[in-house]
Batch of 4 targets.
Target 1
Amino acid sequence: MKYAYFPGCCDHTSAKEYDISTRAVCKNLGIELIDIPDWSCCGSTPGHSTSHLLGVALSARNLALVEEMGLDCTASCAACYQRLALANMEMKNDMKLCEKINCITGKPYHGGVKVKSIVEVVAELGPEQITARVLKPLENLKMAVYYGCLMVRPKEIQVDDPENPQIIDKLMRTVGGEVVDWSYKTECCGGGLAISNEDIVLRLTNKILKEAVDAGVNCIVTACPLCHFNLDMRQKKINKIFGTNYHLPVFYFTQLIGLATGLKPGELSLETHFVDTREVIKLIA
Amino acid sequence: MIRVGVFVCWCGSNIGGIVDVPRVAKEAARFPYVAHSMDYKYTCSEPGQKMIIEAIKKYKLNRVVIASCSPRLHEPTFRKTIARAGLNPYLLEMVNIREQCSWVHAKEPDQATAKAIDLVRMAVAKAIHLKPLYEGSIPVTKKALVIGGGIAGIQAALDIADAGYRVILVEREPTIGGKMVMLDKTFPTLDCSACISTPKMVAVAQHPNIELLTYAEVTGVTGFIGNFSVTVRQKARYVDHSKCTGCGTCWGKCPQKVPSEFDLNMGTRKAIYIPFPQAVPNKPCIDAASCRRITEQKCGVCAKVCPVGAINYEDRDKILQLEVGAIVIATGYDLFDWTTAYGEYGYGKFPDVITGLQFERMVNASGPTGGKIVRPSDGKEPKNVVFIKCVGSRDEAKGKAYCSRVCCLYTAKHAHQVLEKIPGSQAFVFYMDVRAPGKAYEEFYQRTVDEGARYIRGRVSKICRQGDKLLVKGADTLLGTQVEIEADLVVLATAMIPSRNSRQLAQVVGFSTDKDGFFQEAHPKLRPVEAGTAGIFLAGSCQGPKDIPDTVAQGGAAAVKVCALFAKQEIATDPMIAEVNEALCTGCLNCREVCPYKAIKRKTIPDKARGQAAERTVARVNSSLCQGCGCCASSCRSGAINLNGFTDEQIMSAVKASLQHQRLLTNRQ
Amino acid sequence: MPAINLTSNVKDNLDFIMHVSKESGQPVQHCYQCGKCTAGCPVAFAMDYPPNRIIRMVQLGLKEHVLKSQAIWLCAYCSTCTSRCPRNVNLARVMDCLRGMARREGIQLEGRAKKIALFYDCFLDTVKRNGKLYELGMMLNYNLKTGHFFKDAGTGLAMFTKGKIKLIPTKNENYKDLAQIFERIEEMEEKC
Ligand SMILES: Cc1cc2nc3c(=O)[nH]c(=O)nc-3n(C[C@H](O)[C@H](O)[C@H](O)COP(=O)(O)OP(=O)(O)OC[C@H]3O[C@@H](n4cnc5c(N)ncnc54)[C@H](O)[C@@H]3O)c2cc1C
Ligand code: SF4
Ligand code: SF4
């Protein structure tokens, strides 16, 4: 399996754990990720919120680059995945728009690329292939998988059912973890409102943390840098404002697959979390 | 000598307000073979018809073209009119210049007029080639088949039987009664559903003119109006009903408990069972899949205890062959399976989210809880009950676009029952509209509101688990805010959909379904209980969602139609059907594949062409089955099939007339 | 709100209604105001008009009210509304389209909306310059423009200690392409 890999702008900053663990796990599982030369920002929420054309154009530029590589595309970041996949769909379905955008980007895209979330790419390996590589089953981890919005909505690009997705749950079970059934899998954390209206995000994130704790888990699993940032980095502030006492490590699903398949915490950037991960990781052994 | 008369109608201002009617009549006068052309305000009125008759006589007309409304509306009228003038009724050609001209082109009157003239030109060209046609006749078997023993089928069967005709009622389940016997009380009067439906069930069983076949299904239908031949599979019951007295010893002793379908899996029954105590027939059958004697050769208790030796484990399905003259379809409805569509309501994983029909079983004194409203999860009495309407109805994204018509009223009934039975309880109803157009329905709804039910205008977006309660997250669009309710029980008003396998049944019997799978009536207003196929009638919720009053009314209406048919010794057949020119037919039988009514059969004829006694295959049209749709004619490669009244010659001359005129116009330009 | 004269309002704003339908690709008249969007919207509590009312206002051509609303900016594009709408209205797309219109019409924003728009500008500004998001640059610029110089300074420091902040922007090779994309779009949108 070989994919053009779109790491997203936060790959070396706020979401570096995701990029590092994605690369490490894919390598370990035999998924070849090729960097897209000259890739640029997908536009994210600010892009499409400002102008529909801008949103599509910023993503389409990258699709054109991938098309030149002759590969299909995968993105780790859920926001990038959604933007690329939606732009891809619109470019394929709307000839007029496609022409217009190609004119804007100066890089013609002809609709020859498939966009997949890294979650799909890993899941496609199938349980046998993954189980075969498991060295340290995540036996004592009880987790709430939190999917957020961006990879399950809207339905044109959904990776799984928006009301009760299972794709990461299944992966986590495959590597020996215990996942709980909870109602907040795809509730929104407020995502991009964090900087401009932090109070809203704190309120939404608090609810998600509370539900997870009530479900009796010892960690949260996610596949979205925005969700991760809000749940991990803001946990301390939430504790302060709402008088709560959460101490719930938030992992990327790739980090946990990495641990289970024998990668070292250092290779998965587990030390750069805001909520200390060590206690929970100890449970595994 | 062909003499065509053209009559152009104003239809008041319906046509005349847009189309220049006098001009159409004037133009038509110039068309070949037209001997007379005129316009009139209301051609279908008595003076209008008289005028046609007089014109036919005065101008010696032998073909008539009437440009007016749709032939669906007045073709029969005008056929009779020209017959009164002594013409063969099929020497008539109608042009629809209302629906096809004035209505659709209301904004472009000139073009509407031009189109009307074109259409009349084509009709005249076709009329020239019209041939007189003659109706045939066939005898009628005066016995009816009713499929489905819900209240619709029961009513139809009783009415036909009371009129003195014989009826066979086929029901798929071990008992008749349908959904109505599952209900507790019925809106808007709140009378007990069992009390008003079980006497009718008994009447069916005891009626000398009704033969009841329960636990049976129709597997094949051939034939045509007045003469259907029906195959029925009687499923093995493993109990000989001619011996069984219905004493109940067997199901008392049977050790195998399984979920009861009648109680929607909220209660249990035995492997040998009657679905409920008042079932008709009141004799058991064995559910083979759950019987340990049948599946594992063990147990066999029922045979040991049966005092009359009615149990027969070796029983097999039987095939029955019936001859009937008319079929009433009354297969009713099922409920939309919300658990596969509504993830936001938990996909069925919360035990305390139930359907309205489950609620009916629960409040029913003979139901699984003895009439107590409880939470399935812990058996406790709920204090806060939330009702959500339109689950699967009016939801084209997840379910059906249509309104299920009964949920508004039964939800009002359920809310009333909660408030009545549980002191201190609260009932919340999420609704989009309250549709209560029946007699005394609005008052019924208002009464529930007066009793304290809170109606919240908005849909529910999500149901979450919260401790042992359910958090219902909705909106009140009148307030413009989100609302939340901590509910103990949530009841969903799920959509009514056609009963399972109804599409297959439509195929077997040979009639059509609508886009939602309900059975298609011949005309939504004027022929609501007839299917598109002659001799097949529809009753009740198999034709579309309906409450009991409407269902019963349709059952009666279908019965009247059947009786009207049976009152005749013979019936006339429509001559506008397909006809095979055997000389041209190559016997490929393509036509047989495309015929939706199975009207085409293979026929062998002596082949004289080779001089010796050879045979060849040709197609034969069964004149009683053919509905004149023309599929065969258009699929015939050798042009051997013609549809009477729409022959190739007739159609082609209409097309030619139009094309020649177009060419004339372009040449002039 | 004083009584709205619908006779003239709908007629005068027919263009607006059609435009929203066309640009968003959503037949806004399909909405039957069930409120399921509002019921599930995570940010409805902070909005001045709930989502179903935004659509209602579009249906009736209340252009000014809609474009000045906070709600269209507060929408987080989570698409919860879209995925549950029984009438298949992609409300998130409508919200998106209204934001774009508000911006093109030069609506003066206030409160939360103003901050959100500003954040978007600062974000895109770094993309325009570098081809990729430059988080530190964006934050500094945002703080400068809101006048809260040390907002999130704690966060910044924490990020820094975890090695999650880069002091200088990362650029892609042909980062200048991006500025061109922005310019071409601006030109195009001015024209229409
Ligand atoms: C929760 C709920 C509450 C209701 N409350 C009320 C109320 O208070 N008042 C009111 O007026 N209405 C009420 N209704 C509506 C009422 O149930 C229907 O109007 C009525 O039952 C329709 O009767 P039917 O005979 O058309 O269909 P059904 O009752 O569905 O009967 C159809 C019968 O046909 C049989 N059948 C199906 N397919 C075949 C086949 N292929 N071969 C042989 N047999 C077949 C079925 O087994 C069934 O016995 C309620 C509905 C619901 C869901
Ligand atoms: S959910 Fe859809 S139909 Fe309902 S109010 Fe919102 S946009 Fe309108
Ligand atoms: S997309 Fe916007 S309006 Fe819709 S639910 Fe999410 S935040 Fe609310």
Target 2
Amino acid sequence: MDIELGRKSINCNEEGDSQKLGTIDPKSTPFANIMEVDRVDGRTGNQRRPVVCTRGVLNRAHGSASWAQGDTKVIAAVYGPKAGTKKNENPEKACIEVIWKPKTGQSGKPEREYEMVLKKTLQSICLLNVHPNTTTSVIIQVVNDDGALLPCAINAACSALVDAGFPLKHLAVAICCCVADNGHIILDPKKLEEQNMKAFIYLVFPNSIQSVLPEGSLKPGGEVTEHGIITSVTHGVMAVDDYFSCLKMGRAAAVELSDFLRNSLKSKAGNDPSKAG
Amino acid sequence: MSSFATFAKTLLQTLSSPPCVFTKVKTRCHHRDCYRRCRLRRRRLQAREKMEQRLASSLIMTVNEKKFIEDALLSDIRVDGRRPFDYRNLTIRFGSEDGSSEVQLGQTQVIGFVTGQLTQPYRDRPNEGAFAIYTEFSPMADPSFEPGRPGETAIELGRIVDRGLRESRAVDTESLCVIAGKLVWSIRIDLHIIDNGGNLVDAANIAALAALSTFRRPECTLGGEDGQELIVHPPDVREPLPLILHHFPVAVTFGFIGKENIVVIDPTHYEEAVMGGSMTATLNTNGDVCAIQKAGGDGVLQSVIMQCLRIASVKAGDITSKIKNAVESYNTQRSLRKIKRHNLDQQGSSDVAKHHMERLTVGSDQSGNGSQFNEHDKTNKRNNTLKGFSGGPASWDPYSSGVDGDALRTTLASRVTPLDKHKEESSPVNPETKPSPKSSDTIGLEMKQSKTLKDAVKPKHKRRNKSNAC
């Protein structure tokens, strides 16, 4: 698995159903001032780490996926739908339960926050009326944390839901941007970069819609759906302009990532016998 | 609290709450339909519901399936095609960090993480380190695993692995002591079961052993003004040290199925649901039995137990060799990765190969002085590190006789071509790589590097100053 190759070109690997992807073409982005940033591993400001997505990792789970962005690796498993909802949940809709397992130590407050964010994000992409009065459990296991952990987990959970065959409106694509002290916007930081930055944002976008009709994607209220933001979690202080430029950069990265996601999830469709029960 | 106060409290509670609709009684009602104040009943109901839910999602085997498994075993065939004493395929992988392992035994998958931190020792063992094992039965492994407090199987698994490692003294705890009575290393082993395909104990044990073998703890020395201050060297400054493992206690699990107590090794989760009893024997390759766990279940003849132990010792040897091979290949990969990263740091600025040759011709006496330089002069660090790298073992001890320059030149010349290849591969990809901004690339790293590189490339090369090696 050649990581240097993965940064520059698209490499489809047949064994183990995993794929890697490279970077945004630097010439196409409108952010000329990003290039000057120096990063430890030699990436430019708008270069993602190579992504490895594997579906069907576990045997017992109804759906499972592992998502690795560089050194950050997360495994997600989906069980469900199970009968009955929790006490305070609406019984007319499906309920999604998220369990976040950290790498070491007990689950504490940060894990609860991740669970809540993940639950709300997944609730917005799932078709909840298809299975009312049921509970679907999504279990996240952190294997390694090297920056951009929550976006990695959201991507893994989305792939696991697809692997389980859960009905979704669209996919969710998560990306992390951060603002450096000198005002530069950097994509997909590592852990050390995240800790040294002024602020960082986790952004989740719906994936781009490919329509059969020539009219193109839905336009509710005039705005294209693929420009919507599902989730935005910020840490640190940043200027409003910085936030908007992060959004722009994140959207550009999300478009490319969503193409990769669609290709990698499409390849295994129709091969698996049902794993439920 | 005084008795009058408690009396007053209960009186107030009963008077303020509404009476039971069925019995019209104000005090605690045990009417089975009165849910409002029958807390005891309610709690019991909740527990029962939870257990029903758990059983509903646990493995339910039909009578046909059970009979099929038992009948097939009468002709020495197992459901997945193995023979009764065959292990499933074992795959051991390692994560990118030291001390993380991923073990796959057939359909069972376990991840192990080892972390360490400095703590105070136990008062009755002031010069021994501590280690603790935490087992997490993740809900992703099995629909019947609940999050939260570990169940009895999780605790039993943790105890078996712990007993195998602790009682048999596989992990050398005395080497974990830093300052006797004040600071020791406390090792924490986290085992996450992520897929339950049966025989979790064996897989978890292998994951723990693999993770312990690849864990590296930072080196600490006593320094400072009075020699009492503890300095923990970060991994870039000084190479972290591995743990000392005296032997590998490997757990082998047997299941006893059917009335005739047919023995199978490494049961799958279907066989576990059918089996009447199980036994786990923890052995090592020296022929020691570290632990045996047979907690209840069907009674088994003594001769069968002895036969199981004999088979287990053979299997333990197989598994130990597999673990050792996997750890060795990981270690060589790790040292190659370090060398590659070190070379990338250097090549960003100058033509390394030519510099090596030039500095060698200058002679090894200068390299002796070079080592003194490096401690104090960090600005010329890049040149000095190059010098140190080419100097090799002579630069560790400036007072020893130098290494023959010609011999070193030939050995380094043989290594120059791989360096060139690395440089060509990596330069188009990392044109902007600058040398690591941290001032941690001291001579210590280079000495370790050259030692590791020599180990990897020229194992027969005799180093004069082995005693001075740090």
Target 3
Amino acid sequence: MASTGTSSQSTKLEASTFQRLHPRAYFERFLAEGIRTDGREALGWRGVNVNVGSISTADGSALVRLGDTTIVCGVKAEIAQPNLERPDEGFIVPNIDLPAICSPKFKPGAPGEEAQVISDRINEILLSSGVIPLSSLCIHPKKAAWVLYIDATCINYDGNVIDATLIAVMAALKNTRIPVPTFDEEAGTTICSRVNKVSLTITRTPLSASFAVFDGTHLLADPSAFEEPLIETSVTVVVDEHGELASVTQVGVGSLAGGSQSMSECIKAAKQRRRQLGELVGEIS
Amino acid sequence: MAVVPRNPHNLRPLSISWGEISRADGSARFAFGTTQAIASVSGPIEVRQMVELPSRATLEVLVRPLSGVPGTTEKSLGKRLRDILEHALLLSHHPRTLIQLVAQSLSPSPSLPSPSPSSSSSSSSPSLPSSSHHSLAAALINASSLALLHAASIPMRATLCAVTVGKQKLTTTATNTHPGADSHSVLVLDPEGEVEERGCFAFLFGAAVGGGGGGGALEGEVVWADWSGAFNEDEYLQAVELARLGAKKVLRFIKTEMALKNGFMQDDIDCDNGMDLS
């Protein structure tokens, strides 16, 4: 007959073992009680923490924590020759890295699939929302234009990297100060002021809200790393600071048991989330 | 000057060609007008131990552009296609095997602005309309679906059909920048040329799909939506319904072509004896 101390210890051990061995059943037990494994409600969001300007060698930077998911983003501006087909446009080159440090599911080496998918999504969002008009990056048509290298690295992975990364990217862009350029016609080079700096022309601040559907019945906001492998549908809604939709993406069956479509609820919740983020975080309002 | 509005429900001429890749278990080519893609399926075949799964088949989807190396766009498309197909295919019927799907674009991808001085993208596409990537994605999805049907080696819950939806501006005066108050533009299916592409939608047609039992077979369940540009929720819902009509047309075309391939006569098909692809 075990003493009380030992039996409560073995009960604790059993719960975490159960989680590892039967994650789906573990998750279902929580959802049956109306909460998720971290205590959140179905449409509850994790807290956001944004810190800008900490990387002095970058032209703009931000560190974002969404729950435990942590993203560091730096923006560097360089000068390049514009494309022949687009002589008065600059370039925006986002790149997201998910290195081995952030999670045991990533191995060292070339960027894995998830990193490439997120890089592509961020690129699509930035281009289709028209966040920074490429013409505003032109220094001298056909000769010189700014290239904004946006590098984001995940240093702790707890799911929903896309939302956290977009917050980091937008905060870093807003924090970016680039030198005032002057194009010297005779020499054919660009001279940058050491003293005068300007901010970027940012026309919109779109931020994403991601959701997941579990078992065709539960619509969950902001999935964590534990929940992500268990869900079969994911929805991402991008909303800007005016509450206007910039893009939606859905992969998987959208309808929930009971006939409603998850997309309508997601759009509503995404707008609320965007408002909330704008109030919480001045750096990205 | 007003632009002549085109019929919003028209698709470009569709074409399907089966089995061009003779060594694969299944292959098919699909085209919306000039936007073409071809896909091949091999499987169930031997799987390498690293990706072997004990309870179901491993599904690998590779998307390749017409020219150049597969980049992040192709990787992203491949992953999403895999996520949907993993639910549409009954992979548990073939554990410890591999289903390899390769989808190849036969139309040029839109050139992405790239800062490198000798970038291949700036030299490969002479004077093509930009942003045709949704059309290409839809063609790749349809080609993949057809290749799986052609192979008939993996049981499928449903047939996947995709279409693109765009927005045609009805006046050539200054664009209406406020979203939603759009009396100056209309949603159209399968946009090409001057009409702006806005998104790609794919539907699964099958009795076993969707929450409301049985509805999936006729009406289709939206499993892929990729919509961007300034819009409000109503416009999005309208786009989904328009896409659904388009996807049903694609499905009808697939059924007809499949019946013809299997030796049915055109008259029998026209009676629409409901060849059940669910």
Target 4
Amino acid sequence: MSIDKELREELRQVADSMRCPPELYGRVQQSYQHYVNEKRGRSPMKKRMLAGIAAVAILIPSAVYASSYLADGIFGSSTTIEQIGGTQEDYQEIEEMLQAAKGKLTEDEFKEYVELTKQLMQLKLKITDKNGVKHEEKLTKEEQQQFEELASKLAPYFEKINGPAKP
Amino acid sequence: MNDKELLPWLEKAKLGDESAFQLVYQATHQDVYRTVAFLIYNKQDIEDIVNEVYMRMWRSMDKYDPNRPFRFWLHGITVRLVQDWKRKAWRRIRLFERNRQTTCEPFDWTDNAVLRSETQHELFSLVRQLSYKLRVVVILRYFHDYALEEIADMLQIPVGTVKSRHHLALKELRKRFEMTGGDAYVH
């Protein structure tokens, strides 16, 4: 037998005995899921976070309260949000969320958190029409990227806020 | 399943169809795994690379020319990722070497099935001892049956280089095979 033939034969036999471990499927599938999510522009983490932000953004309220309100720091005044339909209760809810954040984050963290939220809200306001419906396609590419960046920067803060209280 | 049948599924999988992904995986994973396992010996690394191959598959689907065989493209991705990995591994090892003195790390070599094959298949065990550059040519030539020109295309090196590596590999194999007392009629 020539060495060519023998090589072919042996490699084939050896290959037949090599089995891709079945557990690898789970891993590849996970990566695939990740790819699909990325392609659609949001990972599960982002989804959860966006849900949190949506609670703030879609229900944007119209209450006019004293300027000591933390929410005013983000939205400026209630007129900004009246335009996209919200109630006083909604505004109150956001205020509570911010208060909770203030309680659980350090001073510097909270400042950063408010700043990021503010930027995110600008984008959110831009894509939300007066009925509270979102139109993500209104964003430019740069804005979408900015949106994602903000969302991922905010993620650790949300974890902290939703996690146990500061010891 | 041949390339033509696979194509529509690949398209679907690229767009996020999970069942299409499953089908593509089933149709290709043994081949990808074996190709990598012939070139890389660490079990963990093999799995990392296989995973990476699939990630790359979806992401570079747009660059695939449907007029060429899918498997050729897939093997191209596989071989390039193996090479990328080896480059990185080499850097890692150098850093590692600098930090350690004498200890000799036992490597987590490939599974027992391969080791068993080595004892049963003398020629294969010699192939495993070839340098990577020679081995990859042998695997592509004799396991995947590619012509030397195709191998050159895939490895992005001149045909002449492939020819000389192929020649050198066979020479090495013959020499060692005779030394170990292998079949006398190998010529």
